[in-house]
Amino acid sequence: MPDTIETAARSALAQVLPQDLPPEAIDPDADLEHLGLTSLNKVLFLTSVCDRVQVGLHHFTEHDLAAMRTLGQVVTALSRHAEVH
Q1: Whole-angstrom Cα distance, residue 9 to residue 48?
Q2: Which InterPro entries does the annotation name (predicted)?
Q3: How far is the C-alpha of 40 from the C-alpha of 42, rounded, in Å?
Q4: Within a domain: residue 84?
Q5: What are phi and psi of 16, to 5 degrees?
Q6: In terms of C-beta distances under 8 Å and separation of at least 24 residues, what long-range contacts does 76-81 make, across chains too?
């Protein structure tokens, strides 16, 4: 069974953050840049979470990806494209 989008996003984000932060401690409204996420790590994070929840990156434009500035925004954006099982 695939991860829920929020669980997958929290886990993927925790793996690329420079500080050791447990997934459940990540504030969904915190700015990813303020958490220390670099542009490269944002790409790695988004690729990883898309793979985990089976949502293709092709659903998003460069502008869409740039607009995802918080964990909550990523979860909302991915939720619009996730298949319901």
Answers
A1: 8
A2: ACP-like_sf, PP-bd_ACP
A3: 5
A4: no
A5: -110, -5
A6: 78/5, 78/9, 78/49, 78/50, 78/53, 79/5, 81/55, 81/56
Amino acid residing at 8: A
72 C-beta neighbours (distance < 10 Å), count? 15
Contacts of 29 (CB under 8 A, 6+ apart): 70, 71, 72
**Encoded tokens for 59:** 């659903």
- What is the per-residue pLDDT across 15-48, written as a single tens digit (0 to 9) for each? 999 999 999 999 999 999 999 999 999 999 999 9
DSSP character string of 15-69: HH-SS---GGGS-TTSBTTTTT--HHHHHHHHHHHHHHHT--GGGS-HHHHHH--
**Overall number of domains in the chain:** 1
In a domain, 85, yes or no: no
pTM (whole model) above 0.90 = no
